[in-house]
Structures are given as structure tokens and as C-alpha cells.
Design a protein that fits this description.
39% of the residues lie in helices and 10% in strands. With 813 residues, the chain is of the alpha/beta class. It folds into 6 domains: 65 residues, no CATH class; 43 residues, no CATH class; 227 residues, Rossmann fold (3-Layer(aba) Sandwich), CATH 3.40.50.300; 239 residues, Rossmann fold (3-Layer(aba) Sandwich), CATH 3.40.50; 30 residues, no CATH class; 104 residues, no CATH class. An 8-stranded mixed sheet has the order 12-13-14-11-15-16-10-17. The radius of gyration is 35 Å and the shape is elongated. About 20% of the residues have low confidence. It catalyses: ATP + H2O = ADP + phosphate + H(+). Belongs to the DEAD box helicase family. It comes from Dekkera bruxellensis (Brettanomyces custersii).
Length: 813
């Protein structure tokens, strides 16, 4: 040692970082998401990555703070971290959309917004966050949205006005019936199919297959020859006691009722001694049996109810039937009426009497003539033709010579050429608001070039199931009122005199057995019409829709309604002139053969199940040469392939097929516009006029159109949360819609694949903030009863169930 040393020896041992013990935290962290719990654990152990530690330091986060414990605790990492309830519907919906957005990787809107609701839908339990409609949406394929349709489209089903050779009198029709066609129906010239069918049925006795476009007048084509041949009998020889000479079968009650009213009110007004009759499901059998006992000459019926009368009504005599018309035969086969039709054909063969009274031998055919009418010639209609037709002639619009050889019929399976078909590809979350926007635009008089032509216009919206009809009806009419009848005021003196006259008129009618005595029928109408209208209106399912437009009324029609409600609703919809615009929400029960006046627009909100259904749906407009507009809603992705399937149905040139942008529809419907007032128009200040003209039709700066569209959607969601019954209807609609989606044909499975549907986004279009648990509960119950079924069996089971529910809407017995 040296002298400077003090004798003390210090030994410093440096501890390496690898051997340093880290603090162990044994406190259990509960509550919140697993990501938050893990981040908190790492923060307490000082194991967070550097960029996460910097983020915590910037946010003034206390790393020693532990999430709140409890079953439904929140992970609170700082004051600036937004709070979410883990059990809230909005949080689950938001996470679902974020995860799906990462999978899709694309959005259809530039704005990535999250709309904040404060004490709104959660019952005041703090702030909740609802994802925007315009985030995490699949990409929509870009198309030419500025394509203009030519103003003049030549109609393909119009009367032959410019053809001098086309005349009802030259077809073999008597003058009385020709006068009736001109005065009652306003038909001065026949259509192509009428010119081909009428002379063939008047002069020939062969079976026929009549195929023509929708709205070309097939009902008139087969009914006029039957009445013409009955009118050729000597006066007084044919009456209601003579027997049934013709049967007209229709697949739906609405079509049967329309055919009956057409015969009664239009054609038979020229020959009142020929009496039509009607037997359909939903009516009282007792009254129908009394009508049959009283006697009818032309019986209009649905297959199920007619088969029931054949078995149980002894007074039903079908031995003199000379005409059997199967109207919309393909639909009858699709609905399962093959057995009923076969039973009818067997009965007609067994009871047929070849001998007729002498006065009818030269008027009616010696054998029964079967006529099959359809707009399509594919599928089960060929099987029906083999069952009912023998050596039949095929008559089409381009087949004026009525050749009897087999043909494919593809050229005739087309929509009317004057129909404009629009395609609207919409993400699933935006379906409800886009439908509302489309209806707003269609019923907006200011947007129409000819506002007078839009008055009293009617629109039909087709859905896939009745539950979906119910939901959209209550959702869009929740702020409306039921229709009311405006009673006519009468003076006291006149009312007393009219009551006396009505009593005298009823006494005379009862005494002399007539209803057209002096003052009887007229005074009855003046005193009792309003009461009858009120009783009839009580059965109409219709309400006003201020959410769409102040002058709009919406009707609903489907097979689950009572027959009285269906008849009253359809009749009031066809005759309503009180409101400027009428909209009918319906299923395919109204897609076949109905000829409703002033149908300007058809909206296919749910895609049709077959191409034939598409033709019949769009055929409700553009009838007998009139113009028409149809809109088809599709989802992005595989459903866009469906456009290629319907393109051949709308012409080879594709002049009447165009595409719409859903954002343009939302913008035109939900943007707030300023307009000039009357005072401003009368001002003489030119500068003020120019300034107001610049601001005309310019959106206000109160909010963008997407904000108003989101508000419209959120109001619907809030309404469902506050109304348990409405939410139940929305849930049933979603479940029924998903089941119906599985019933598309296998040939179209490349377009409609149930496995590729995003159920969370689809549920939002029904106002639901999460996918209903009803589907999971049903699947778990089915698995608990027995062995687990494979995916293919489950798909077929659900498809059969949906098909049975769809066929039940046409219950005719």
C-alpha cells in the first residue's frame, strides 16, 4: 500500500441489465376490451413499445391507471379517449363495419364520417357513437351515368293506328260490339296480337297458344270472340239459365276480379243478357253457390276455388263448356295448381255434351277449345301446354299467319320497346334511404318537365315478401294519417226531401221489383254514397306519407291481408284522384296481368326470382303504347352480373337501358334548395333579380346532403328503438327477406349468393343496428333437436320454407 491509501478497499459490482428483476404486478386487470387490458398490463410493466409510450405521454395518460372493474366496465385510458359501452348496439355495429371495411378495402364515398348521437337512442345513458352510412361500403362499378335516352321510342304494343287495314269491323265483329269497344274502352284500332287472335277464334275451332308482350291486350283478344259468337244466337235464346259456355282461369284473385269487372262493366254492356260470374278464394262459398244456381254464362275463377266447387257444388253444370282459357298459365304452374288444372280437365272431358241446343249449334264450336295465354314460353308453361292443348296453333305478334309449328319464342319474350329500364346499384346500408330518395324524386312535381302529366300518377314498388312490405309501409307512413272521406254538405230542406224520395224509391223498387224507378236509384246514391265509401275505406290499407311528399299516399297489398282488404285496396288505388301521387307497396301478387291506370313508374326494390317475373313486373307500366319507367335495385358485387341477364330482354340496341348513380339520387332528394318567392319575381330591381337568380336552386349551407340522409336514417333507427312492436316487424322483415333471397334459381346463383351477403349492413337497411339474434336462435334450436345438418340441406330447407310462404300469399281456397 502507498501512504496515500487510507486502508479502505471499495468493491463496486456493476449489475447487468439482463439480470435486473422487473417489478411484478399481481393485481388483476378486469373490464374493457382485451386489447386495452393488454396495453395496460404492458404499461405497468414498462414493456410498451417506444411509439406507444410517446403516444401516452402526449395524451397525458397515467400508466398506473387500471380499468374499471365490473361485468360491463369501460377501458378508460385517459380523458381524451372516447367512451364506448361494450354492451351497446352501436359499439358492436361500429366494430362490425370496421372489420368489414378492412376486408373490403374500398369505400364508395369520399367522406369518412362518424355521426355522434348525444343521449339519443341509448335512453340518456351517456354518449353513443353510430357509424356513418357512407363508410365501409363496397365499391360500386363506375358506369356512364350521363347516358341520355332518345325522346322518341316506338311502342311495340300500341294499337295499329297508322294501319288502314287494321279495323275491328274487318275482323268479323258486329257493329254493336265495335261501338262498345270505341265508347267504353276507347279502342278504335286493334293491337298486333288482337288482329291475329280475334279472327282465328271467330272462324276456327282449334286450340291456341297466345304469346305476346305484357300490356298488348291479350284479355280483349280472347274475350271478344267468345262474346261475339254468343251474340250470334237468336235474340232471347241465350240467357243466364242457358248454362256455362266459357271458363277463364286466373292465377290470382286480383287478376280474376279484374277480368270479371272488365267483362261485366265493359264488354257485356253491349249484350246484357250474357252474364259473367266470379268464384275466387276468400269469398263466401254460400253466396257463390247462390250465384251459380241463379245462372252464369262465363265463369271467371281461380283454380283452387273452382276445384272445390267441382267437388262440393251439385248445381255446377260444366257439360256445355266450349271455351277454356288459361290466363297466365306459367304462373299457375309455378304456384302448384297443376293438380287442380288436371282435375278440371278430367271433369270437363267426362261431362262434355257434344249436342247443343239447335239455336247454338251454328254459333258455338262443336268441341271444346282450349286457349293458353302467357307472355313467356319457357319453363312449366310448356308442360301445361302438353296437358291442355291438342294440335294447337302458336300465335305471336310477329306471327300473323298463325303457324302451328314449334318455335323458341325468344323474340317475343321481351319488354315493351317504349319502356325505359334504369339500373340503380346501391350498397346494402344505403338501400332504405336510397329507396326513400327515389320515391321523393319520382313524386317531385318541380323536377318533372311536364308537371301536369305527373298529376295523378301512380307508382308500384315490388318487394320479395309480405313482411318487408309491412315494414317499409309503416316506416315511411309513421308520420302520416289514414285516408278520410270528404262528405258532401246538404241543405236541411233538401235532405228531408231526399230522404222521403229515397224511401218512396225503395218502396217502389221492392213493390215492382226494379231499381231504376223515378228518383229511387238516384236518390239512394245521393244519400248513401258517403256511408258506403266510408265503410269501404275502412278496409283500405293506405296512409299519407309526409316523409316522401305532402301530396303522396301509400298503399300496401300482399297475400297475407284479408280478401276484403285486398279488393278494397286495389280498387281504391286504381280510382284514387284525391292525391297527386299514389304508391303501392306489394309483392308479386300484383305482378301478373293487372291493368291499372296511370302507372308511370315501377320500382323493383328486391330483384325478381326469375327473368319471367321481371318481365311481368315491368309490364305493369308502358301498356298499350303508353310510355313507362322502371327502376331495378341491385347490390354491388355479384348482383351486378344480373344486368347481363336482363339486357337481352330490353332490346339489342340498349337505347332504353340506362344507369343511375345512388349518390345523385340522394343529393337531389336530401339537399335543401332555395327558390324564388312571388314577391321577388315582381320586383323591378335588375340587380336583385340577378342575385336571386344566381342563388336559385343552390343548396343551402345548413348541411350537406349526406348529413340529411344520415339524419333520415337515424330517425328511423330511433323510432324502432322507441317502438318495440315496430322493431319486431323490422326484425321479421329482415328474417323473411334473407330467407326469400335463397329462393333464386340455381341458374342465377352466380348473381345471388346468400353466403356473400353482409348481414350487418343489410340489417341496417331495415333500421336495425345489429343483426337480429333470431337467426342464431333458430339455428341453435334446429341443431339441438338432432344431428347437425349440412349446409346444402339447410339451404334447401330454408328455400322450401320461403317458397311455401310465397305461395301461401296466393291462397285461393
Amino acid at each position: 500500500m502507498s501512504d496515500e491509501d487510507d486502508g479502505m478497499l471499495l468493491n463496486f459490482a456493476a449489475v447487468s441489465s439482463s439480470t435486473e428483476k422487473k417489478p411484478v404486478i399481481k393485481k388483476k386487470i378486469v373490464g374493457g376490451r382485451w386489447k386495452d387490458r393488454r396495453r395496460t398490463r404492458l404499461a405497468l410493466e414498462n414493456r410498451l413499445p417506444k411509439y406507444k409510450r410517446d403516444k401516452q405521454d402526449d395524451g397525458n395518460v397515467n400508466p398506473n391507471q387500471v380499468p374499471v372493474s365490473g361485468k360491463r366496465g369501460r377501458a378508460r385510458m385517459g380523458q381524451n379517449n372516447s367512451r364506448k359501452e361494450e354492451n351497446g348496439e352501436e359499439a358492436r355495429s361500429s366494430r362490425d363495419e370496421e372489420e368489414h371495411g378492412e376486408e373490403e378495402g374500398t369505400t364508395s364515398h369520399k367522406r369518412q364520417r362518424v355521426t355522434k348521437e348525444i343521449r339519443g337512442s341509448n335512453g340518456g345513458k351517456g354518449d353513443t357513437f353510430v357509424s356513418s352510412l357512407f363508410t365501409a361500403n363496397p365499391e360500386v362499378q363506375k358506369r356512364d351515368y350521363n347516358q341520355e335516352t332518345k325522346a322518341e321510342l316506338k311502342p311495340s304494343n300500341a294499337p295499329l293506328i297508322n294501319d288502314e287495314s287494321a279495323d275491328f269491323a274487318k275482323l268479323g265483329i258486329n257493329k254493336t260490339l265495335c261501338r262498345c269497344l270505341e265508347q267504353k274502352l276507347g279502342y278504335a284500332k286493334p293491337t298486333k296480337i288482337q288482329r291475329a287472335v280475334i279472327p282465328a277464334l271467330i272462324t276456327g275451332d282449334d286450340d291456341m297458344f297466345v304469346q305476346a308482350q305484357t300490356g298488348s291486350g291479350k284479355t280483349l283478344a280472347f274475350s271478344v270472340p267468345i262474346i261475339e259468337r254468343l251474340m250470334r244466337a237468336s235474340d232471347g235464346s241465350v240467357n243466364r239459365k242457358s248454362g256455362i259456355f266459357a271458363i277463364v282461369l286466373s292465377p290470382t284473385r286480383e287478376l280474376a276480379t279484374q277480368t270479371y269487372e272488365f267483362l261485366t262493366n265493359k264488354l257485356c254492356s253491349a249484350c246484357h243478357w250474357i252474364v259473367p260470374g266470379l268464384v275466387i278464394g276468400g269469398e263466401k262459398k254460400k253466396s257463390e253457390k247462390a250465384r251459380i244456381r241463379k245462372g252464369v254464362n262465363i265463369l271467371v275463377a281461380t283454380p283452387g276455388r273452382l276445384a272445390d266447387h267441382i267437388e262440393n257444388t251439385n248445381k255446377l253444370d260444366l257439360s256445355k263448356v266450349r271455351y277454356l282459357v288459361l290466363d297466365e298459365g306459367d304462373r299457375m304452374m309455378d304456384l302448384g295448381f297443376e293438380e287442380a288444372i288436371g282435375k278440371l280437365l278430367t271433369c270437363l272431358e267426362s261431362v262434355f255434351e257434344p249436342r247443343l241446343p239447335q239455336n247454338l249449334q251454328n254459333c258455338l264450336p262443336a268441341k271444346r277449345v282450349n286457349i293458353l295465354c302467357s307472355a313467356t314460353m319457357e319453363g312449366t308453361v310448356k308442360k301445361l301446354g302438353q296437358m291442355s292443348l291438342k294440335d294447337a296453333k302458336l300465335i305471336t305478334t310477329d306471327n300473323g299467319k298463325t303457324k302451328g309449328e314449334n318455335r323458341s319464342g325468344k323474340n317475343d319474350m321481351m319488354a315493351p320497346e317504349q319502356l325505359v329500364q334504369e339500373i340503380l346499384v346501391v350498397p346494402p346500408k344505403l338501400r332504405f334511404v336510397t329507396l326513400s330518395a327515389r320515391l321523393k324524386n319520382l313524386t317531385n312535381d318541380n323536377s318533372a318537365e311536364d308537371a301536369a302529366a305527373q298529376k295523378n300518377s301512380k307508382t308500384i314498388v315490388f318487394f320479395s315478401c309480405s313482411d318487408s312490405v309491412d315494414f317499409h309501409f309503416i316506416a315511411l307512413t309513421r308520420t302520416g294519417k289514414r285516408l278520410t272521406v270528404q262528405k258532401k254538405r246538404r241543405l236541411p230542406k233538401e235532405s228531408e226531401q231526399s230522404s222521403k224520395n229515397s224511401q218512396e224509391g225503395r218502396h217502389n223498387a221492392k213493390k215492382y221489383g226494379r231499381r231504376d224507378g223515378k228518383g229511387s236509384r238516384q236518390n239512394e246514391k245521393s244519400g248513401d254514397t258517403n256511408d258506403d265509401e266510408e265503410a269501404q275505406l275502412g278496409k283500405v290499407t293506405a296512409m299519407t306519407a309526409p316523409l316522401i311528399n305532402d301530396n303522396v299516399v301509400i298503399y300496401k297489398l300482399h297475400g297475407s291481408l284479408s280478401q276484403e282488404a285486398r279488393t278494397a285496396t286495389l280498387s281504391h288505388f286504381a280510382k284514387n284522384n284525391q292525391y297527386a301521387h299514389s304508391i303501392l307497396f306489394c309483392t308479386d301478387v300484383a305482378s301478373r296481368g293487372l291493368d291499372l291506370p296511370n302507372i308511370k313508374n315501377v320500382v323493383e326494390y328486391d330483384p325478381p326470382f326469375t327473368l319471367q317475373d321481371h318481365l311481368h313486373r315491368v309490364g305493369r307500366t308502358a301498356r298499350v303504347g303508353e310510355s313507362g319507367l322502371s327502376t331495378l335495385f341491385l347490390l354491388p358485387g355479384d348482383e351486378e352480373n344480373y344486368i347481363k341477364k336482363i339486357e337481352p330482354l330490353h332490346g339489342d340496341k340498349k337505347e332504353n337501358l340506362r344507369y343511375l348513380n345512388f349518390e345523385d339520387q340522394l343529393k337531389s332528394a336530401f339537399a335543401k334548395y332555395e327558390t324564388e318567392s312571388d314577391d321577388d319575381k315582381n320586383e323591378n330591381d335588375k340587380k336583385h333579380r340577378k342575385r336571386k337568380a344566381r342563388s336559385k336552386n343552390v343548396p343551402k349551407r345548413e348541411g350537406d346532403w349526406d348529413v340529411h340522409a344520415t339524419t333520415f336514417q337515424l330517425n328511423t333507427e330511433r323510432w324502432l328503438l322507441e317502438n318495440p312492436r315496430a322493431k319486431e316487424i323490422a326484425t321479421n322483415a329482415f328474417v323473411s327477406h334473407t330467407r326469400a333471397y335463397t329462393t333464386h334459381l340455381s341458374s342465377e346463383r352466380d348473381c345471388f349468393n346468400f353466403k356473400k351477403l353482409h348481414l350487418g349492413h343489410l340489417a341496417k337497411s331495415f333500421g336495425l343496428r345489429e343483426t337480429p339474434k333470431k337467426l342464431a336462435n333458430e339455428s341453435s334450436k334446429s341443431h339441438s333437436k338432432g344431428p347437425r345438418e349440412d349446409a346444402k340441406s339447410k339451404m334447401f330447407r330454408v328455400a322450401r320454407k320461403a317458397a311455401a310462404a310465397q305461395s301461401a300469399e296466393f291462397n285461393t281456397i
